Hints:
Blueprint lengths: L10 E4 L6 E7 L1 E5 L3 E7 L10 E11 L7 E7 L2 E9 L2 E5 L4 E4 L4 E5 L4 E6 L7 E10 L10 E5 L4 E4 L2 E7 L1 E2 L2 E2 L8 E8 L4 E5 L5 E13 L2 E4 L2 E6 L4 E5 L4 E8 L5 E5 L2 E3 L2 H12 L37
Antiparallel strand pairs: 1-25, 2-22, 3-4, 4-5, 5-12, 6-11, 7-10, 7-12, 8-9, 8-11, 10-13, 14-15, 15-18, 16-17, 18-24, 19-23, 20-21, 20-22, 20-23, 20-24, 25-26
Amino acid sequence: xxxxxxxxxxxxxxxxxxxxxxxxxxxxxxxxxxxxxxxxxxxxxxxxxxxxxxxxxxxxxxxxxxxxxxxxxxxxxxxxxxxxxxxxxxxxxxxxxxxxxxxxxxxxxxxxxxxxxxxxxxxxxxxxxxxxxxxxxxxxxxxxxxxxxxxxxxxxxxxxxxxxxxxxxxxxxxxxxxxxxxxxxxxxxxxxxxxxxxxxxxxxxxxxxxxxxxxxxxxxxxxxxxxxxxxxxxxxxxxxxxxxxxxxxxxxxxxxxxxxxxxxxxxxxxxxxxxxxxxxxxxxxxxxxxxxxxxxxxxxxxxxxxxxxxxxxxxxxxxxxxx
Length: 323
């Protein structure tokens, strides 16, 4: 998925050591995604820029497509990151410059590693189901992996995590002893968890990770903080257990990872290590350099990069600023 903001901020995401357990409730902001879709953006946030290597999180839907064409995210580039696509309802067609053609469906994980550069599109197919609901996440690649050759992976046999009152799938990494086979380049985890009405359950966490719990359906309380749809409970590090509760039932995405120890600059669909590097990525896309091959053909419909800021923005604080 693309960041379609017409004036995207350049964000310097420099993540130092985390400060132990916290409970901070964040609320998403609404962002247009093209002319037909609006999303709730939870990361990056003014107070929490990243959760581990997780640097971008959009929640969209549930949307009744009706007469709407659905998602229309035309061909656009990425560098220095992985996109993680997770659908709760509906179908989306993914195409990329590697020749990949995939139907993104609920319960199947799709991870696109941009590395040095890739181009892809995401469109609702004509024979789509009537409802679209999902999450799009980005993972910042560490310096040792950010120039890898791009690749696209689909994982359909994700392991299940079942506890009394809770059930779900582990998407990446390991959660409470259940490990996903999906490819990762830094220590992180993600799980889609469904809480039954009245659920009160604990799961084990890696204390070296910082964690966040995103509510996507219903209600959920993570540790001692209650959240509703489109809120993220940031939990910090140094937790060995997490208590999850729900009154009426809910669905959450648990994210975690070791605090990302590298400074990165994220602007539009690019992640680099300096303002100048990101400017180079944009120039290469504008020239349709060979590092950004077409998805189908050079004459295809594409998304043009927004104008750059007139001056480099000042560095942002690492992960947190005071409210």
